[in-house]
Amino acid sequence: MPQSELTKHIEALIFSSVQSISVQEIILALTAALSKEVIENQVFEGIDYLQKKYADDDFAIELVNLNNGYQFLTKKDYHETVNQLQLHRSKKKLSQAAMETLAIIAYRQPITKLEIEQIRGVNSDYSVQRLLEKELISINGKAETPGRPILYCTSSLFMDYFGLNNITQLPQLKDLAKDENTVGMPEE
Question: Where are the annotated coiled coils located (predicted)?
């Protein structure tokens, strides 16, 4: 099969995937669908072609490497337009409590529910349950402490949703602090 035809299959797989799709998943799907072994270099060649193709200003989308996979996303110039649509369709917003819980899990993972509750100062059962239902967090085993409490961490959907390749890309406190938000006189 010519590379151009294989690239169309790769494009179809990435387009139809709800979440980012890894190179290995692409290889498995293509090998099964085409009844022919597909090698990694062929997939990377197709991805490279697609990234160059969608980098053109004629397209409102681009092919992005996210969470060790690939996904089509809207270019930044169109985020506000798409955001307006999402706001109208959004019926499943996260509450303030759920957002706080998600932030704690993201920065302190893996973490137990008791540790989350100690940080927030309130019961977090409902928030943790909602985040699990929305698949923004996942269970990451059990702690080696008495009672063996469940450990929670962020999911790959969280990584896709926030456009991260790994958790180290989360903003750090020093990145968010601004001089106008400080109280008192600066130290000399």
Answer: none
